[in-house]
Design brief:
- The longest helix is centred in the middle third of the chain and has 15 residues.
- The protein has four helices and no strands.
- By secondary structure, it is mostly helical.
- It has two domains: about 40 residues; about 35 residues, no CATH class.
- The mean pLDDT is about 85.
Length: about 100
Amino acid sequence: MINPGTQNKDRLTIRVNHDRKINATKIAEELGTDLPTLVNMFIARLVQENGMPFRPMSNDAIVGLDEALADVKAGRVTTFDSADAFRDELRRLEKPTDD
């Protein structure tokens, strides 16, 4: 009898930076799995989503997130007591100013 888990499987060979592979292997092990399983999971989600299973971010987006985090850490934030108050503030910010 043929093992159903091995039917219709192809081998995929890729080249990857050695240090990146070592780090990824450690992370996979910490997650209780191995690197080939994670690669297969990625491919399965790629097919399921019919595209990237995550949103790639540009350096500009990362810089923006870093700036936002710095604002939060420095206390430069506005808090709201309700979703309505937050929506009101968004509407106020959307209105053109009379300059």
